Automatic annotation (TrEMBL):
Family statement drawn from the similarity comment of this UniProt entry: Belongs to the eukaryotic/archaeal RNase P protein component 4 family.
A family per Pfam: Rpr2
Gene Ontology BP, a term: tRNA processing
Protein name, UniProt field: Ribonuclease P/MRP subunit p21
InterPro entries: Rpr2/Snm1/Rpp21
Ranges for region Disordered: 113-144
Gene Ontology CC terms, in alphabetical order: nucleolar ribonuclease P complex
Alphabetically ordered keywords of this record: Metal-binding, tRNA processing, Zinc
Molecular function GO labels: metal ion binding
PANTHER family the record matches: RIBONUCLEASE P PROTEIN SUBUNIT P21, RIBONUCLEASE P SUBUNIT P21
Length: 144
């Protein structure tokens, strides 16, 4: 696959909005409403065009209120133990919604597994790629 990235302009817009939110908070940490507006717009665009964002981006946005989550500023980050596993619990300070992520260095996200990559498999490659392409758009990392 590779080659031309589909929806390049949309990804550039997502990237711009995400970076703009970071800039706003870096310049004026009080101006969280504007950063939230940028992130909300970013999420709306991504949802409308069904674009997949990188987990590193997705994990820094609140699922409840679209705030940009920066530990110590707009969210708290705590380490917890549950069922013998370590979790990072992130709580948004605006809407108190929390998300938790498995904190295990050996854990690999499904999107990073070789079988998750289009055209990654030898053998029945063309068939699988065609079948997958019908259902889901390619999900490249958004340009930064
Ligand atoms: Zn929130």
């Amino acid at each position: 696959m590779a080659g031309q990235v589909k929806d390049r302009e949309a990804f550039q817009r997502l990237s711009f909005l995400y970076q703009a939110a970071h800039c706003v908070l870096a310049q004026d940490p009080e101006n969280q409403a504007l950063a939230r507006f940028y992130c909300h717009t970013e999420r709306t665009v991504a949802r409308r065009l069904v674009l997949r964002r990188d987990p590193s981006v997705k994990r820094t946005l609140c699922r409840g209120c679209s705030s940009l989550l920066l530990p110590g500023l707009t969210c708290t980050q705590r380490q917890r133990r549950c069922r013998g596993q370590r979790w990072t619990v992130q709580t948004c300070l605006t809407c108190q919604r929390s998300q938790r992520f498995l904190n295990d260095p050996a854990h690999v996200l499904w999107g990073d597994l070789p079988q998750a990559q289009l055209g990654g498999q030898p053998g029945e490659k063309s068939e699988t790629t065609a079948a997958l392409a019908k259902h889901s758009p390619p999900h490249p990392t958004p340009p930064r």
